[in-house]
Design a protein that fits this description.
This protein is mainly alpha-helical. It has four helices and no strands.
Length: about 120
């Protein structure tokens, strides 16, 4: 497995958590809006993770920037909801997850050439 693919794994996992949260919210409350928004965000995050795993610098840059944008938007929306309601689920959890993923992707963007141990 290439290093670029490994670096995209946190986005795939976190995107799956967002999608699963949307499905859970739909099953619990019947909110079609929550389901649609969560699946849309997850789809864009999956696309970004795929682009991050590509070998070309432009694809990786596009994926990283797209991931940062999606995670920041999600952090902003869910942070607003959390600080207005103080409800940990789902707003607080998604706020923390998306904030962490924003930082992770920003750090990946600021270190475009990770060091690989030579054999």
């Amino acid at each position: 497995v290439g290093l670029r693919r490994v670096m995209s794994i946190p986005n795939y996992i976190s995107g799956a958590v967002v999608a699963a949260g949307g499905v859970a919210g739909y099953l619990r409350t019947g909110s079609e809006t929550s389901l649609a928004v969560a699946l849309a965000f997850a789809a864009v995050i999956f696309f970004a993770a795929f682009k991050i795993s590509q070998t070309s610098v432009s694809s990786k840059s596009l994926g990283t920037n797209l991931a940062i944008a999606m995670w920041l938007i999600l952090a902003g929306v869910m942070g607003f909801r959390f600080f207005n309601s103080w409800k940990v689920m789902p707003a607080g959890v998604v706020f923390v997850l998306s904030s962490a993923m924003s930082i992770y992707n920003f750090l990946q963007a600021s270190n475009p050439k990770p060091k690989v141990a030579k054999h």
